[in-house]
């Protein structure tokens, strides 16, 4: 698993208050959960892993590369799935959107088509392949966003609240898929049950990393905080 290292990371947006303060942590487990109240800094923390946010103070490294100057290299390893799928859908149709992520891998057109077909099947989107992506429902878009990242086979998959719009059956589907993926998963969620079977869970509170534990203990700490 890649090694993600935060060293004395502090960050504020503009003139605002610090949204992360003095975070030092190393992550290398297969399944890592991130929990905490609204505005506690979870999204900012995970956005730092692939350089979407570069900290004002301190460093974030992935396998030794700093996000401050190696973000492109890091993004080849680290796939990111946003809470709002609209921010991620870039191509007109569902199949084209999935294929878009594969453009920089030097693979044949046939292989692209095969990979796209396989992932659409897995995520229950096969019937929607030729639909304009913007006409999908919120949950279908969330599945599409996830499929489009997973198809690129990243080494690390960051999921920022990936199930907020999903019904029970699709949440179960995503949970099963996540369990099976042979890569490092970092999951930000308010759905605490999704962390069952995870190796480790971090709890954020008002910009500070206040617990770093087995999910059961971390969930107890979080419940006591709110
Ligand atoms: N681009 C930005 N510009 C200014 N402030 C921001 C920006 N992004 C986040 N913030 C602020 O940083 C703080 C932490 O936000 P963050 O999105 O990291 O929290 P979160 O724990 O993911 O919250 P939630 O559970 O509500 O998604 C919030 O007060 C938020 O308003």
Automatic annotation (TrEMBL):
GO CC annotations on file: ATP-binding cassette (ABC) transporter complex
Keywords attached to this entry: ATP-binding, Nucleotide-binding, Transport
GO molecular function, one term: ATP hydrolysis activity
SUPFAM superfamilies from the UniProt entry: P-loop containing nucleoside triphosphate hydrolases
Keyword Amino-acid biosynthesis assigned: no
Domain (ABC transporter): residue spans on this chain: 4-226
Coiled-coil parts of chain: none
Stored InterPro entries: AAA+_ATPase, ABC_transporter-like_ATP-bd, ABC_transporter-like_CS, ABC_transpr_CbiO/EcfA_su, ECF_ABC_transporter_ATP-bd, P-loop_NTPase
Assigned protein family: Belongs to the ABC transporter superfamily.
Name of the protein described by the UniProt record: ABC transporter ATP-binding protein
Record lineage: Bacteria, Bacillati, Actinomycetota, Actinomycetes, Propionibacteriales
């Amino acid at each position: 698993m890649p090694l993600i290292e935060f060293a004395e990371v502090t960050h504020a947006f503009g003139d605002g208050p610090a949204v992360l303060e003095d975070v030092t942590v190393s992550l290398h487990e297969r399944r890592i959960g991130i929990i905490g109240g609204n505005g506690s800094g979870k999204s900012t923390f995970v956005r730092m892993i692939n350089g979407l946010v570069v900290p004002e103070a301190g460093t974030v490294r992935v396998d030794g590369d700093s996000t401050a100057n190696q973000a492109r290299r890091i993004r080849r390893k680290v796939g990111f799935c946003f809470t709002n799928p609209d921010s991620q859908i870039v191509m007109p149709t569902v199949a084209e959107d999935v294929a878009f992520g594969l453009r920089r891998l030097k693979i044949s057109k046939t292989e692209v088509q095969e990979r796209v077909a396989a992932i659409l099947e897995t995520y229950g989107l096969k019937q929607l392949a030729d639909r304009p992506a913007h006409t999908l429902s919120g949950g279908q878009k969330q599945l599409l966003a996830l499929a489009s990242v997973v198809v690129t086979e990243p080494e690390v998959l960051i999921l920022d609240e990936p199930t907020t719009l999903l019904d029970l059956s699709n949440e179960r589907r995503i949970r099963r898929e996540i369990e099976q993926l042979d890569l490092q998963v970092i999951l930000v969620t308010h759905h605490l049950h999704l962390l069952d079977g995870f190796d480790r869970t971090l709890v954020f509170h008002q910009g500070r990393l206040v617990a770093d534990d087995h999910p059961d203990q971390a969930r107890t700490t979080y419940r006591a905080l709110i």
